[in-house]
Amino acid sequence: METKPAPAAPSGGMETAVSTVPKIRDIGTIALEALGKIDTVLAFELSVMNDHMKSMEGENALIKAENDMLKAKLVQQKEDEADIYYYLHKKLDANYEVIAQLESDIQTVKLERDAMDKAFHIKQDETQDAFAKEKKELTERIESAEDTLHALEVFRERKIVLEDTIAAMESTLAAEKDNHKKVRRYIYIYI
Predict the structure, then answer these.
(1) Cα separation of 33 and 55, whole Å?
(2) Read out DSSP for 63-117?
(3) Angle at 133 between CA 130 and CA 138, to 5 degrees
(4) Which range, 29-43, 74-88, 165-179, is most confident?
(5) Name one GO cellular component term (predicted).
(6) Do the beta carbons of residue 80 and residue 57 sit within 8 Å?
(7) Can you tell me the distance from the alpha carbon of 152 to that of 176, in angstroms, rounded to the nearest whole number?
(8) pTM (2 decimals)?
């Protein structure tokens, strides 16, 4: 505890020896010892001041306790912050490794996809060329078949005409034969 010298007498000319008094002692008691006699108003004021000082000391003690508690919380928060900072940096480093691996995987997949796209386009071009060639051949065969079909239709039409002509000629021939037989018989009969 802190000690301080007693205050000097205000006007009486009476000086007392400096004594060490603990701070907790009542200020009124200290004043009475220092002055010997005290007036009632001054004693009341000293008593009020003493009460005020006690309440201030109580508040000061509470504030100090709260300050100590806040200091402890601050220390704990700083430790927690350091732990969180360490954890986040550790996690960030791990994430950087994961990101680097994923970026590498992305590059690998892109290269594979590009190779597959190139192979697909080559295969597609080859297939389209083969289909174009086959289509050309089939188109030529269709055109040839259509030409043949047209020729066959013309032939059929001519055949029908020829068959009709032959039938007409045969019927004319048959009629002529009959007519010839009749004429021959007639000639034979009359000759």
Answers:
(1) 23
(2) HHHHHHHHHHHHHHHHHHHHHHHHHHHHHHHHHHHHHHHHHHHHHHHHHHHHHHH
(3) 120
(4) 74-88
(5) ciliary basal body
(6) no
(7) 34
(8) 0.38
